[in-house]
Amino acid sequence: NAGVTQTPKFQVLKTGQSMTLQCAQDMNHEYMSWYRQDPGMGLRLIHYSVGAGITDQGEVPNGYNVSRSTTEDFPLRLLSAAPSQTSVYFCASSYDSLRAEAFFGQGTRLTVV
Amino acid sequence: GEDVEQSLFLSVREGDSSVINCTYTDSSSTYLYWYKQEPGAGLQLLTYIFSNMDMKQDQRLTVLLNKKDKHLSLRIADTQTGDSAIYFCAESPFSGGYNKLIFGAGTRLAVHP
Known about the structure:
The structure holds 2 protein chains of 2 kinds. By secondary structure, chain A is an all-beta fold.
């Protein structure tokens, strides 16, 4: 079973470039979310979605856009990359926002120079 | 506000017990979680405890919850080198109709012979 798949695993961007981080899950989960992980800060929620067509902002949404056109996919777009967005990004999914078990992707390590 | 605190490092000898502590702030959290992150990997749910429980045991893992003090701990019995990882505590405050995960900064567990 694939679970939660993130692509790419690594990416280097120049300041001002845009890109999309892909996330797909094959478990028919309603709830999907994006986090960034920075040293000494744990994971911080960027955006989340409670179902197809529904998205909302998390703790640190500025500079990022999301959409949820299907249950399976939840891409994260960086509109104009900045060095402060250098981080490891994780996508996660769960049955719904109340269920305990969240499944995480392997992460995308992004460097903005 | 929502905040989860945990110590950043713990070093133990192989075969000893490890105890990782966490404090949280939001008493509305329905579930409290422990996640494990191995190098270069995503987060894996280790165990969770429902907020109306005091203790949960799962093989070598014991979770203790003190709701009065908002204190959560994870005890790993007979710690092995394979347990070396970063352990994240997370709470799930109920906000705006949904449970969101709030993570601590993570405790890096080092197991030495």
